[in-house]
Amino acid sequence: MTLHARYRAGFAALALAAATPLTATVAHAEFPDRPLKLIVPFAPSGSTDLAARLIAEYAGRELGQTIVVENRAGAGGSMGMEQVAKAEPDGYTLGMATMSTHGSNVAAYGARLKYDPIKDFAPVSNVATVPSVFAINPRIPARTIQEFIALAKAEPGKYSYASPGVGSLGHTNIEHFTALSGIQLLHIPYKGAGPAMNDAVGGQVDGITDNLPSALAHIKAGRLRALVLLSDKRSPALPDVPVYGEIGYPQMGTGGWFGIVAPAGTPPAVVGKLNAAIHKAMQQPNFVQKMDEAGATLIPNTPAQFQAQIEQAVARYQAVAKVAKLSAE
Description:
Largest sheet: 6 strands, mixed
Family: Belongs to the UPF0065 (bug) family.
Structural class: alpha/beta
Number of strands: 11
Oligomer: single chain
Number of helices: 11
Strand order of the largest sheet: 2-1-3-10-4-11
Organism: Achromobacter mucicolens
Keywords: Signal
Low-confidence stretches: 2-28
Strand content: 15-25%
Signal peptide: 1-29
Order of helices and strands: HEHEHEHEEHEHEHEHEEHHEH
């Protein structure tokens, strides 16, 4: 072998020796080795946002990485969830799925929805279920839901209600109720629960339907008057407020939920690690206390169980859309 050939062989061996440890390190990097992103498809300060920030704080500690919360509001949550569906399936982009994004939006938007809630996501875990409350501004002269129905029937279309957006769970649920009760209300959609709540409290709209956690403080302070809950039972926080089933509308069903999803194709091992971290986070006393104070009930489960809940939500709200003649047109 010539001297030149020996040099070339030596350099090749050195390059291989140097590259091999780096390649092995990259190939076997533990997940997660960088910050994660959690997309909330609604504006800040709603109950979904509250749960997301608790998950980010406590699950981030379990994972040893920062989880950055990003609010991407619009189209009843579908805009943010579309971004989750299109993200790289590596576990670093997650989304807060809700009964809106994975239930009512499917019914409202139909073929125009740019993601499939069943096929385009890898469920990680459900987090919590919450009652939904229909509340009115105290200036409206109704103390009960029956009195409000009477007012609305006397003057069809006079009273308005705010929702987090067209096709959102709030919009769908109230349109379902108006169809069942025979009243007409004016729907005012907002880009998220926070702005909708601000105008309901301020009196720019007459009422609002929202998850109880984000409405409860306003109700307790007298800035809103709760009339009825969407839940399977009365809330200890509002023991005098009936549920829809008690006033003759069992078809309204129960409250909503929110949980964590990843893009479809995310490796099962990554989903499993995320699931374990979220469940550990949900066992922390401060996490439990804050969610309890917000009126939420924790429902951690397996990815398969969460998948089944998503499929049930889609089927339910497709049926609701037919009754309420709901469309996001």
